[in-house]
Design goal:
single chain; mainly beta; 16-stranded antiparallel beta barrel; two-stranded antiparallel sheet; 1 helix; disordered N terminus
């Protein structure tokens, strides 16, 4: 399951990186993107064995094609990923009560294939888009679909959007050295509703606001993780439902004197597991001579913890929940990204690198005990787009 979540995060980066400048979708367009993701080793000071342990490494290949057919547009995305490495299995106290990781075996290997299809068409007065996708790993299958409507009001400079998505996921965890007693199979579903509006304030400035609601039902625990309670381990156990809300705002401002644009994004997240999170990102898009573009960006993130989370437990909770997953812990994170692209007549090339570091010291509020499983990673993307 750690591989699943990490690969989804990388997939989001991959999709974003394919938005290249200077390439229109008026003709057939094809894209290829390669991504490499490497987590920093967990040091011996944070493991129960006292030995440094390698963490996840992900190689991702994405192929995309977009084809206009009259007023319709068809698109297809194919992603293939390979994942390997170790991840935190559970957290326990050392002799001084300090939380340390017990790591899974480093022999974890997995592959993921994801296929997504899209179809957009005018349905007056809207522009509509529909999607259908299938994703499979050795221990995981997901079928998803979605629909979106867009309404433009050119007189007021407004664009309204709204949509929904649904995913049905089937889990069939593998039994191994690090997971001898996992469940045989489970399922979960996710419903997403969203809406937003973008407004052109003037020739140089656009603002956008969005609201997102998501509901998850079914098996929401991690079948590969354990929790330490009073000297013994139990299976990771979380509520079988989760509702979340997110509000986001975006500002895009063009600076004609510098031939550049500044992008500012903010997002607030809240769920009924009592996690509150803030994300702030600032990016500078600098256009250079000969169709070059360079984009440095900085992002800050902070979240509170889930109500049932603890690094480890001295006694069982009365509700039976238990999870020491670092993704449910209180922490903050900073990241820095640099992207470079070059647009040619029918071709566009691009590459980017990102460094990310999660730590309790970056959090909005003080974190008394940081989870030893927090991630530091480096990722790299290289891409090519061709239209004909």
């Amino acid at each position: 399951m750690a591989a699943i979540k990490n690969s989804k995060a990388l997939a989001a980066l991959t999709h974003a990186a394919l938005a290249l400048p200077g390439v229109a979708a008026a003709e057939v367009q094809t894209d290829y993107l390669y991504s490499f993701y490497q987590e920093k080793d967990t040091p011996g000071s944070q493991t129960s064995s006292g030995q440094s342990v390698e963490r996840y490494q992900i190689h991702s290949h994405m192929f995309r094609a977009v084809m206009p057919m009259g007023e319709n547009t068809l698109g297809a995305n194919l992603t293939y990923e390979t994942m390997s490495g170790a991840s935190p299995w559970w957290v326990q106290p050392d002799t001084n009560g300090k939380p340390v990781n017990v790591m899974s075996g480093a022999s974890i290997r997995d592959e993921r294939v994801d296929l997504q299809g899209t179809w957009s068409l005018p349905i007056e007065p809207f522009q509509a888009a529909f999607s259908l996708g299938y994703s499979a790993e050795d221990d995981y299958e997901a079928l998803n679909g979605g629909a979106e409507l867009e309404l433009r009001d050119d007189e007021r400079g407004l664009t309204w959007t709204g949509g929904l998505g649904y995913s049905d996921d089937q889990l069939k965890p593998e039994h191994g050295t690090s997971s001898p007693n996992v469940i045989d199979s489970e399922s979960k579903s996710t419903l997403t509703l969203y809406g937003g509006a973008a407004m052109v304030l003037n020739a140089a400035t656009v603002v956008q606001a969005n609201i997102n609601y998501q509901r998850g039902d079914g098996f929401l625990s991690d079948p590969y993780k354990l929790a330490w309670i009073g000297g013994s381990t139990v299976a990771d156990s979380r509520p079988d439902g989760r509702q979340s809300w997110a509000l986001s705002g975006k500002l895009r401002h063009h600076l004609a004197s510098s031939n550049a644009a500044i992008h500012v994004d903010y997002r607030y997240f809240h769920d009924d597991w009592e996690i509150d999170a803030h994300t702030l990102e600032v990016a500078w898009h600098q256009v250079l001579p000969d169709q070059w573009r360079i984009t440095p960006a900085l992002r800050w993130y902070s979240q509170s913890q889930a109500f049932f989370y603890a690094p480890y437990y001295q006694a069982a909770r009365s509700d039976g929940f238990a999870s020491s997953d670092y993704r449910l812990s209180p922490y903050g994170a900073v990241s820095a990204r640099l992207d470079v692209s070059k647009a040619l007549e029918n071709l566009a090339l691009g590459a980017g690198v990102e460094w990310y570091d999660a730590d309790g010291s970056y959090a909005l509020k003080s974190v008394d005990v940081a989870n030893p499983g927090l991630v530091e990673y480096l990722s790299f993307q290289a891409r090519i787009t061709y239209r004909f």
